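Bug #77: duplicate submission created two jobs. Keeping one. Sequence:
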Amino acid sequence: MLTREQKREIVDKLRDHFKKTPIVVLLDYRGLNVEKISNLRRRLYESGGHMQVCKNTLIKVALDESEKANDEFYGYLTGPNAALYVEEDGDPMTVLKALVKFVKETEMPKIKAGLFEGEVYDEQGVIELSKLPSRTELLGMVANVLQAPITGLAASLNNIILKLPYALTAVKEKKEA
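Kept job's structure:
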């Protein structure tokens, strides 16, 4: 049994993480052995995420204190839960991709719900969110879009320079004739 101080420490830790994270996902971890839980935590940590197993009341209090309270999301706080959250500088889509990949491989844990930017998503919604491009992929797309006009201008200028000798030859031949 946890003491009141230990519970307060857990709530404080979760509250601080929930304030900084854009996403919170509830997982039903039943059926996972220690090896699989350790493997899941390692994969999540490598992609910038963390998983905390704790009582539903502690998760609810932490969400309330972090100002991310959502009655619809609280409806999923039944049975044993693990809360998944992303580090402040982490990419939520990368973490979700790692989670969904692990779930497909092991068919566990069960994704209950996700709270992303104030919106509640069910299991299928979380899986769909994981299909969105990660921050790195989006930055690459933006870079390509920004680079395209410059590349086109450089190619046009290069064509002008390449065609200059042909134009000079044509003018020379016209004057000679």
